TrEMBL record:
The keyword Signal is annotated on this UniProt entry: yes
Protein name (Swiss-Prot/TrEMBL): Bpifb1 protein
This protein's record includes keyword Manganese: no
Signal peptide range in chain numbering: 1-21
Length: 503
């Protein structure tokens, strides 16, 4: 399934700032018509829908209908007595079509059928065959229930005689051809009702299976380390020819206890998947940052600077000597630096991609035996953030750490401008904090959705739109190949998502 696609499966940051509340859904899963068609087709196969077509009671339906055509009544009843066998010999469900309805919150599904039927009669030695093409149309609607949650339901399943085409496949004698044409004339009103009575219940079951499968996929928890991200359905919706799930989210700790709950009763202005992309997953920015907080919890790092990075320790000593030579002389071999983080890096989008900001307290002690630091600094560190995938995992990596703001909080050596040692402090963070943060993120976030929807891999990119900060889904066409991990030789290169505005 979905062999020719490589999917760029992206988290969307729905425009919330770090401090501003957002009433839009914490997450939105948008399933395009390609995914709907493929999964409904598979569900019909699972229910063996073509076997139902093979069992259509053509002969009994014709006998029931023959009396409703008075002109043909006598001839048909006479001929029907000579039919000893009649059934569908070949049946295929052709490519489904998923189309938007003229009504809001409604989806049209068209299911074309191709069948060949045959009949045997002692009047001729060969089988009389004719081809039947028709189409089933069903409507999918959002339905509210007083006793249960809102859901999508399939209804108004029917097959119209206007879509029915019958043609005789073999030419026999004039009398047999004439009678075969009369058989087809009787089938024209009989077949649509037969298809509706026998196949529509199976289509209903297949749709319910597909919908429940989508719902399980949308609400499947994502394992984090530690804890998990758990989704719940706020409401389903239909936008154009897409199925949309507005989701709430909960962050769970390692004991499955809820630590944060993201909820909203307000549906956002929805957008279809861009340029025919199969699906998209968008997450509100506060939820994305809460995930990073879970993966990179606040902590305190203690570093013996001369043992870890002696050249930076010497550089720091030289900086302190410029401020207070006596203090610099007190720095011993066990010179110590403490770095306390107060949250995980907070993702911020910009025109070129993503950055992250993190607030820390950095303290310098002359030795590891001292309990009072020489000085304490409040620092806002910035990173460049990169999203990519390894297998079925979303990976986040930070690089190029820099100091955006720095403030002297406590000093026992002398008041000084901390900007003078900004270069040294940046190196300390580069050698200590940056590897620690990336180490926490190295396991990545498992994204089973890509393979569950039938796609081989995902590519990630970050874009900032005028309608709000988002990371979006894009696709790229590749030759069809088995559903298996792509080799390194076929690795797709990073790309930018196409730009589009709100629907």
């Amino acid at each position: 399934m979905a062999g020719p696609w490589i999917v760029t499966f992206l988290y969307g940051l729905l425009g919330a700032t770090l401090v501003q509340a957002d009433l839009r859904p914490p997450a939105v899963l948008n399933l395009g018509p390609v995914v709907i068609k493929e999964h409904l087709t598979q569900a019909l196969k699972n229910h063996d829908a073509t076997a139902i077509l093979h069992e259509l009671p053509l002969l009994s339906a014709m006998r029931d209908r023959s009396g409703s055509v008075p002109v043909l009544d006598s001839l048909m009843r006479s001929f029907l007595r000579y039919i000893i066998w009649m059934k569908v010999t070949s049946a295929n469900i052709l490519q489904l079509a998923v189309q938007p309805s003229t009504y809001d919150q409604e989806l049209v599904i068209r299911i074309p059928l191709d069948m060949v039927a045959g009949l045997n009669t002692p009047l001729v030695k060969t089988m009389v065959q004719f081809q039947m093409n028709t189409e089933i149309q069903a409507l999918v609607r959002v339905e509210k229930s007083k006793s249960g949650p809102t859901r999508l339901n399939l209804g108004d399943c029917s097959s119209s005689s206007n879509t029915l085409r019958l043609s005789l496949l073999n030419k026999l004698s004039f009398m047999v051809n004439s009678l075969a044409n009369n058989v087809m004339n009787v089938l024209v009103p009989a077949l649509p009702q037969m298809v509706k009575n026998h196949l529509c219940p199976v289509i209903q079951q297949a749709f319910d299976d597909m919908y429940n499968g989508f719902l399980r996929l949308a609400t499947a928890p994502i394992a984090l380390s530690p804890g998990a991200l758990d989704f719940g359905l706020l409401s389903p919706a239909i936008q154009d020819n897409n199925i949309v799930f507005n989701l709430e989210a909960k962050l769970l700790d390692s004991q499955a206890r809820v630590t944060k709950w993201f909820n909203s009763s307000v549906a956002s202005q929805m957008e279809t998947t861009p340029n025919g992309a199969p699906f998209s997953l968008l997450m509100r920015q506060d939820l994305v940052n809460a995930i990073v907080d879970t993966l990179v919890p606040k902590e305190e790092l203690v570093i013996l600077l001369r043992f870890l990075i002696p050249e930076v320790a010497r550089q720091l000593q030289a900086d302190i000597k410029e401020i207070n030579a006596e203090a610099a002389n007190k720095l011993g071999p066990s010179q110590m630096v403490k770095i306390a983080t107060y949250s995980g890096p907070q993702i911020v989008l910009n025109e070129d991609g993503a950055t992250a900001a993190q607030n820390i307290i950095l303290e310098v002690f002359p030795t590891n035996a001292d309990v009072r630091p020489f000085f304490s600094l409040g620092i806002e560190a910035n990173y460049e953030a990169r999203f990519f995938t390894e297998g079925d995992r979303l990976m986040i990596n930070f690089s190029n750490i820099s100091i955006e703001r720095i403030k002297l909080m406590i000093s026992d050596i002398k008041l000084f401008n901390p900007e003078t040692m900004k270069g040294t402090l940046t190196k300390i963070l580069e050698y200590t904090l940056l590897p620690n943060v990336n180490g926490k993120l190295r396991t990545g976030i498992p994204m089973a959705m890509v393979r569950a929807l039938g796609y081989e891999k995902s590519l990630w990119s970050v874009n900032k739109e005028r309608v709000g900060s988002r990371v979006r889904i894009c696709i790229r066409n590749l030759p069809r190949q088995p559903l298996a991990p792509t080799s390194s030789a076929n690795e797709a290169q990073p790309m930018k998502c196409p730009s589009w505005s709100a629907g």
